[in-house]
Backbone:
């Protein structure tokens, strides 16, 4: 009976079995560096939820920390609500990212996580994961690596907002998206923005009008081709330079 329950839990809608061992983005997620036996133990505690539709939330500010969420597909935005009642976006999470780390310190989620498109996630019960990581050094090390990545991302964002002008901020944002898509096996040169220009502006501290104007300027310069939400990087060297990053091949 236990084995049957595990098998059922590993089936997503559509009847396709999903295992950590077979996941295409496992190298970005918790399973990275784990051996087969450790992967089986991790796989047995993970719950594969039904698709989350655009606009649905994974959790809300003040919710008790019960699970971390590994994104299998889609995009999730994290945000808080200011004292003035305004939304402030704090991050955009892609396949392979884990959401919910910032709730560990107080055992409550400080903000919201909302799907920007239909998304698939793996729900990982935190107490069980914490217990398992105490028994598996490789898992504990990987959790620390992922947390370190979160801290580094926050530091980069502070630098972005404090030192760069509007043009450099948007260039850095697009450059970073390109890099992240490449890490996931997608094209670094052509991709679709799953977030609105309003969301991008909110995240970067810029107005929608500024985002639209800058995209037009980037296109006119030959650096990008913009068609609705679709971006094509035409001059990666120029984008890298404006973003303050070393040149990387597209």
Residues:
């Amino acid at each position: 009976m236990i084995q049957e329950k595990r098998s059922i839990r590993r089936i997503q809608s559509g009847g396709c079995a999903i295992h950590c061992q077979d996941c295409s983005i496992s190298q970005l997620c918790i399973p990275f560096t784990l051996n087969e036996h450790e992967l089986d133990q991790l796989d047995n505690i993970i719950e594969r939820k039904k698709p989350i539709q655009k606009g649905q939330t994974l959790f809300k500010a003040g919710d008790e920390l019960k699970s971390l969420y590994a994104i299998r597909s889609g995009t999730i935005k994290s945000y808080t609500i200011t004292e003035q009642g305004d939304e402030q976006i704090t991050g955009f999470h892609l396949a392979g990212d884990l959401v919910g780390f910032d709730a560990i310190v107080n055992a409550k989620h400080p903000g919201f996580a909302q799907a920007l498109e239909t998304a698939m996630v793996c729900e990982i019960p935190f107490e069980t994961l914490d217990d398992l990581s105490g028994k598996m050094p490789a898992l504990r090390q990987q959790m620390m690596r992922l947390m370190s990545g979160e801290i580094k991302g926050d530091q980069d964002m502070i630098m972005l907002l404090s030192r760069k002008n509007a043009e450099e901020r948007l260039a850095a944002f697009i450059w970073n998206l390109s890099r992240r898509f490449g890490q996931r096996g997608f094209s670094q040169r052509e991709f679709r923005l799953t977030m609105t220009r309003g969301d991008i502006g909110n995240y970067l501290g810029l107005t929608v009008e500024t985002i639209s104007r800058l995209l037009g300027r980037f296109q006119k310069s030959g650096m990008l081709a913009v068609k609705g939400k679709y971006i094509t990087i035409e001059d990666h060297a120029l984008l890298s330079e404006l973003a303050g990053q070393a040149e990387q091949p597209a």
The chain has two domains: 2-150, 164-243. The first helix runs from residue 2 to 9. Confidence is low (pLDDT under 50) at residues 1-16.
